[in-house]
Design goal:
Strands 1, 2, 5, 6, 7 and 8 form a six-stranded mixed beta sheet that branches. A two-stranded antiparallel sheet has the order 3-4. The mean pLDDT is 92. By secondary structure, the chain is α+β, with helices and mostly antiparallel strands. The protein has eleven helices and eight strands. The protein is globular.
Length: 277
């Protein structure tokens, strides 16, 4: 079946500003039965769901998990042994001292199961946010999806399907779908933390994790839609901030010096419309 993708480009969605900017841009381009695939970070940012890492003072365990466990054991032994990407290995080996605050945040907010992950802990996003703020997953992605769907209906009179995704992937192992994230739709087993992080090296990667969907349909189809949307975002972005290191490179500054004004200078694609023809 043929389909069309429409990247929705916006200015930076600022912390706590709500869905207005996102909804208006969707409403101006959507049609009935369109699939609207939205990344999780703009949702959390719009809802003001950011955390300041400077407020988390690292304890001894955070130091050990950052310096010994993540930087050295994973960076120099386990990641090469398990065949992780060179980019992941490089990033772990050059982990900054601020990562200790990040580990402390993960320990306090999510627990040891997630803090033992060397990267991508609990889906907490360090990119596309200013300064030393981070973006956790939306508090209630299903409620967020329903609200956006209803607001688009009110403004445009169109009935669309809202799907919220996270780039942290879903994998399959012996026909069982799982993610390391603490949240997902019911058909994907979540909350695996470091156990899923290890198991994924022996599993098949399917695509982004589906956090919420306003349409009840096959999980494989939802993941395929997520893959299409992610490719569209990459293909249409001058600066695709997949990691914090991408942001540092683009803005030529340390990540804790990145401001909202800087983020406003680049075009963002918080969501993609997929229309079957």
């Amino acid at each position: 079946m043929n389909y069309k993708t429409i990247p929705i480009k916006t200015e930076y969605i600022q912390p706590g500003e709500g869905y207005d900017k996102l909804v208006k841009n969707i409403a101006s381009s959507c049609q009935d039965n369109d699939y609207i695939i939205i990344s999780e970070t703009p949702i959390s940012t719009a809802e003001g769901n950011l955390l300041n890492e400077t407020e988390y003072k690292p304890g001894i365990l955070a130091y050990l998990l950052t310096e010994l466990w993540s930087k050295y054991l994973w960076g120099y032994i386990l990641c090469p042994l398990l065949g992780y990407k060179q980019r992941t290995i490089k990033n772990l080996r050059r982990m900054p001292s601020e990562a200790r605050n990040h580990k402390q945040l993960i320990l306090e907010e999510y627990g040891l199961k997630y803090a033992l992950q060397p990267t991508a802990e609990a889906g907490v996003d360090l990119s596309n946010v200013p300064g030393q703020y981070v973006s956790p997953l939306p508090v209630n992605p299903s409620a967020s999806a329903r609200t956006i769907k209803n607001e688009v209906k009110q403004i445009a009179g169109k009935d669309v399907h809202i799907i919220i995704i996270d780039t942290d992937a879903t994998y399959t192992f012996h026909d069982k779908k799982f993610t390391t994230l603490p949240q997902s739709i019911n058909s994907i087993h979540n909350g695996t933390g470091v156990f899923g992080y290890i198991l994924r090296r022996f599993s098949e990667k399917l695509g982004p994790t589906i956090l919420a969907s306003t349409i009840d349909c096959d999980t494989d189809k939802l993941i395929k839609l997520g893959n299409i949307a992610e490719k569209c975002q990459v293909d249409n972005s001058e600066n695709f901030f997949e990691t914090i290191y991408n942001m540092k490179s683009v803005f030529n500054t340390d990540y804790d010096n990145i401001t909202i004004n800087m983020l406003n200078t680049v075009t963002h694609i918080p969501c993609v419309i997929i229309r079957f023809e």
